[in-house]
Structure formats: C-alpha cells, structure tokens
Design brief:
Keywords: Flavoprotein, FMN, Monooxygenase, Oxidoreductase. By secondary structure, the chain is of the alpha/beta class. The chain contains 13 helices and 15 strands. The two termini are 16 Å apart.
C-alpha cells in the first residue's frame, strides 16, 4: 500500500471564529472576522492545502465563513463542516456549488451526523445517531445527483423526495470532495458508499491502522476508492525535553480550569462528570487515556484524560523530526491526509507549517528515493 501513496499528501489546518487556546480558553469578541481572515492568511502562507471550518448546533455558520475565506485567500482550500437536516440537500448542493465556483474550485464539505444526541436537539434533530447517518448518506447522494444531472430529475428516497430537482450551477470540477467521519460499522460502510475522504480522530498506530483498513475495505465493497485523513494535535519543541515541558504545563493548566468549573472548553453545559462520551470516536479517546500517558513513539493522552474523552485531543509531542517520524508511520498504514492543529493554535499554526510539514515532506522524498 505504501508504494501507492508515496506522493499523496494533504495538510489541513483549522480556522476558528475567535482567538484563544486550550490553556486560556476563548478570548475577545464572540465572533471576530479580522481574526478569521488573519488565521486563514497565516495558514495559506505557511503552506497548508486547506483549512477546516468547524460546525455544531451553537457555532457560527460554516458556509458563510467559507464565502468570506474565498474572497480573502487565493489558493487555500476550505472544508466546511455541515450537518444534514437543517436545510434541504438540494439547497445545500446549490450553495456549495456556488461557493466552489466563487473560490475557483477550492471548496470541500465535511458531512457530520453529530456526536451527541442531546447536542443536535438544539437544532431540532430528535432522531438516533444511526438514523442521522442514513439521512446523511442519502443527503450526499442527492447532492451528487444535483451536481451531476444535466436535466431535472426525480428522487424518491427513504428520507427525501423531489420532483424536477436541478441546479444551474455546479462545482468547478463537476463535484467537490466529501469528507465523512464515524467509527461504527454503519458509519464506515456508508462512508465507503458516498464519501471521498474518511476522517478519523487521532489514535495509536494500531487503532488508526485498523480504522483505515476498514474505510478502504468499505469503499472497495461499493466499488470505490477512498482517502483517509487523521486529525492530530501537535505540540512541538526545539528539543524533546522542551516539547514535553510544554505538554506537562498544558495538562496542569487544563486540569486547573476544569477543577475551577470551566466546563465549556470541551464539555457541553448539559454534560456531567459521570456522563459517558457519546461519540464512538470520543470513547476511543477515553480508552487511549486508560492505556497510559505516553503511547507508541510520542503519542500523549493527557488531554484525553483531562477531558474524559470529549473532543479530539490525542497529541503528538516532540521535535519536528520525531513527530514527522510518527506521521510517516501513519502514512504507511494508509493515511495520507493530516489535519494538524495545536492547543496553542494562534501561535503554533505557522510553526507547524514552517517546521513540521517540510520535515514530513523530506522524509517522504527520502522514502520514495529508497524505493527507486
């Protein structure tokens, strides 16, 4: 498998809607357009391929932020997280196609079913997670039909029904990349059926490789190919000791904030200490923290432990070379896309692009040369 993916790489960052860090929490205004622009331009200059614009029931709308970024950047792609349900897939398809054309083909969509039943109820979704995954798959199917159909079409599905559905605008390439997450058998199978990229959370080599194999196998069952992306939190230091000093200081700050009652940094207002993390991915994070503080080469579970598995907080800690070594191992397991972010995103995003990504590309080039 590695020989087939040696040239394949996508580096994804993240643009938040306000400043802040895991240690200090959100800062400044509740919505900061100038900060959004600055964060996007910094990551574009640092060589990221695209950035994620996150979404949840209470967050600012990702499509609007994507439209803003399309006008202030020139080459940076953007992946807009989007939940099926609040709007019709026919409308979403036209909206996304319009954004893609405005940005000259730089748009992508991350379809998410919602991690927690209670959280999505704020948007009026009272169905089960399994139902939401089936809705999401049909939603993507409808969007793809809208993007590809040259004539109005009818559609009769389990959840959606249309007559003479059509769009006068299509994505620049005829479609756009669809990202998809989830760890259940249903989520993985539907991902293989409708998505282009399977997005998984940070994990051990064993765990990440297992999910990547399942995603590739699911796509093969449906006669398709798929790419795999992994989100990983990064803490770099000039030396290994300096990197781990950052990690220990961060763990202390987060633990103190949670002990002081600041639950909103990850946990929702309705969460209680005894609650089980709802998402399968979050349960995997909690299980990681119980395996030990340091796993594999430089995987740190301290934030997963502090947040009781909520959020995607598996961290690679070390020098750029050490972290790149681990990313290369994930690549050998079939993962070719990395969403790299930092607990200190405002200061570290450019550092990751300047120090880590070139080291990763150098190791990729060396591995390719060794195979020649």
């Amino acid at each position: 498998m590695y020989a087939d993916i040696q040239d394949d790489l996508e580096i994804v960052g993240i643009v938040n809607h306000r400043p802040g860090s895991v240690a200090s929490g959100p800062q400044g205004a509740d919505f900061d357009p100038a900060y959004i622009r600055k964060a996007a331009l910094e990551q574009e200059a640092a060589g990221y391929d695209r950035v994620l614009i996150a979404n949840a029931a209470v967050m600012p709308e990702s499509f609007a932020i994507g439209a803003h970024l399309s006008g202030v950047t020139s080459k940076l792609g953007f992946m807009m997280a989007h939940r099926p349900g609040p709007v019709q897939p026919t409308y979403a398809a036209r909206h996304l196609a319009t954004l893609d054309r405005l940005s000259e083909g730089r748009a992508a969509v991350h379809v998410i079913a919602g991690a927690d039943d209670r959280e999505v109820q704020a948007d009026g979704a009272f169905n089960t997670k399994e139902e939401r995954y089936r809705i999401a798959a049909e939603y993507v199917e409808v969007m793809r039909r809208v993007w590809s159909s040259e004539q109005p079409f009818d559609f009769d599905g389990e959840f959606y029904k249309y007559r003479d559905a059509f769009a006068m605008v299509r994505p620049q390439g005829g479609a756009m990349p669809v990202y998809w997450g989830g760890t259940s058998d249903l989520a993985l199978d539907l991902c293989g059926k409708v998505a282009d990229v399977y997005a998984q959370g940070g994990d051990t080599f064993e765990g990440a490789g297992d999910l990547a194999r399942k995603a590739h196998a699911a796509a093969a069952r449906h006669g398709r190919d798929i790419k795999v992306l992994m989100t990983m939190v990064i803490l770099l230091g000039e030396t290994e000791d300096a990197a781990w000093e950052r990690a220990m200081k961060l763990e202390q700050q987060v633990t103190e904030r949670i002990a002081g009652g600041e639950r909103g940094i990850v946990m929702g207002k309705h969460d209680k200490d005894e609650d089980k993390a709802a998402a399968g991915a979050f349960q995997r994070m909690l299980a990681q923290s119980k395996q030990g503080d340091r796993l594999d080469r430089c995987l740190w579970t301290g934030l997963n432990k502090a947040f009781k598995g909520r959020g995607n907080n598996s961290v690679l800690v070390g020098t750029p070379q050490q972290v790149a070594d681990s990313l290369m191992e994930y690549r050998r397991l079939g993962i070719t896309r990395f969403l790299l972010r930092s607990p200190e995103q405002d200061t570290d995003a450019a550092l990751i692009g300047r120090e880590l990504v070139p080291e990763l590309k150098a190791q990729m080039a060396a591995a390719k040369a060794a195979l020649a």
